[in-house]
Amino acid sequence: MIMRLLVTRPSKDADALMAKLVALGHQVFASPLLQIVPRADLDIPSDDYQLIALTSANAIRCLSGSLRLVGLRHLAVMAVGPQSAEAARQAGFTNVTEAGSDGVGLARHIIDKASPKAGPVLYLSGLDTASDFSGLLERAGFKVRRIIVYEARAATTLSPAAAQAEGVLLYSPRSARLWLDLARKHDIKANVMVHYCLSPNIAAILPDGFVTRIAAQPTEDSLLEIIGRAA
Questions:
Q1: Tens-level pLDDT at each residue, the chain (231 residues)
Q2: What value does the CA radius of gyration of the chain take, rounded to a whole number of Å?
Q3: What is the four-CA torsion angle of 225, 90, 146, 114, rounded to 10 degrees?
Q4: With CB atoms 3.0 to 4.6 Å apart as the test, which of 95, 101, 103, 216 could cross-link to 133 if both were Cys?
């Protein structure tokens, strides 16, 4: 069945996703719930880092082409998923590992594969994170240098096309909360839509009675699989 789907990801992430949904035969609208704003006062102190950790593709994208990456490209990168791993490769890193699927999984992978004695972990992140990534590593004995690279600012309005959607794609608990708030603001009947959620903790934000579909794994491919091809 052809679905009218609302993509809520930030613009740079949404373009490729929308193309995939169109290729599956669906009608697609965009209404980003978050705007990625790089920090202007960024500083990365020199240190003997053993690796760079990424829980977001936007962190490395905001630094791509920047002189701040000079001297860091020799480091291994451990990235939470395919998008963050690919963003690291496009930024010039060659030793890139994709692991964990989410912040907790990536932290566990680093704890299993790396040693606290090898040096601090350079964690490039946004202002808001969905997991206690740094805390998990620190409790395992790692020193973590977290550098906040960008801020994800909340949208204050929805695209007019949002009211036409039959399904909504949600990628984070914060986005789910924003969607509910803005849908109420615009008198959109979100309860009659299907909500495609990247993980169970996103679906948990939605009120009882909402129709939800949860990806088997917290990956975009898994999310596309539950949406399926239009009949």
A1: 889 999 999 888 888 899 999 999 999 999 999 999 998 878 899 999 999 999 988 999 998 777 778 889 999 999 998 889 999 999 999 999 998 878 889 999 999 999 999 999 999 999 988 788 999 999 999 999 999 999 999 999 999 999 999 999 999 899 999 999 999 999 999 999 999 999 898 999 999 999 999 999 888 889 999 999 876
A2: 18
A3: 80
A4: 103
